[in-house]
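Re: export button greyed out
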Amino acid sequence: MKTVIRNTTVADKLLFLFMITASLAGIFISRAAMPQGGEVVVEINGKKAYAFALDEDRIFAVPGPCGDTVIEIKNKKARVKEAHCPNRLCEKQGWISKGVIVCLPNRIVVSVGGRSANSSKEVDAITG
Amino acid sequence: MQLQDKYRIAVLSAYALALHGIENLVPTPIPWLRLGLANIVTLVALVLFGFRTAMMVTMIRVILASLFTGTFLGPSFVMSFGGGLTSTAAMGLTYRMSRGLFGPIGLSLVGAFFHNMAQLVLAYILFIQRIEAMYIITPVIVLLGTLTGVANGAVSGLLIKKLLKKEDDRIQNDIANERQSQ
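Workaround output, generated via the alternate export path:
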């Protein structure tokens, strides 16, 4: 360890510090620049019907064969607040921050996901 | 090229290849994080035997490793080759341009950075093609590369020192022996 430290020149240390600060700054800047959370997309009958930002709280109703389905977005999570279908499985699923809630009787699919969430999965392998 | 150089390149390539293989067996927390242990050999070759030896060793290592794993001329070979070529060239240039300014750790950092950048550019061209994904991933990879680069540089520094000392001792012994025989 001593030899290692003695072998390091001033330029080495400066370069190391510069790289660490630059990359850390880069991480924070890219995090801040990218939209967090993403959006809530509601599909009816397989067609995209609504899209809302996940970081804005709101409650809205979506019409369907079994009556209106009330969807709530709060604290960057989404849930089906109220449904009038027989099983109400969508209601029981509760809050989700990613993934999907499906209400089959109403043919509604609520999916939560952001572009940033998808893009980070893009890299499968980097080999060197 | 002298016969001694050929032996040197062969031995160094063998070491680099072995490290390259071992590194594939070491589990890392993130699947695409690699330690770059083979860069130790490249760096030692660069400092002790010059740029051409280092470049030869890197090329031989990358090509043979890809032949052994069956990825020759595949996308991962292109990334490996590009990274090795760029990092060795960058280290060689830095070493030549700024003699004495950077120690092994600094050279290793330069090598790691250029290796990462070359691979990111190649990954962008070959696989990803989404610039916002690159913005997120680049600083993370550069940070990890800096950390592994420092570790590799430290090991290279120790190795270079030890090898130089051995060479020194050998020359001293030779001189002493010669004096005795006279």
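Residues 40 and 124 of chain A are 26 Å apart (CA to CA). The button fix ships in the next patch.
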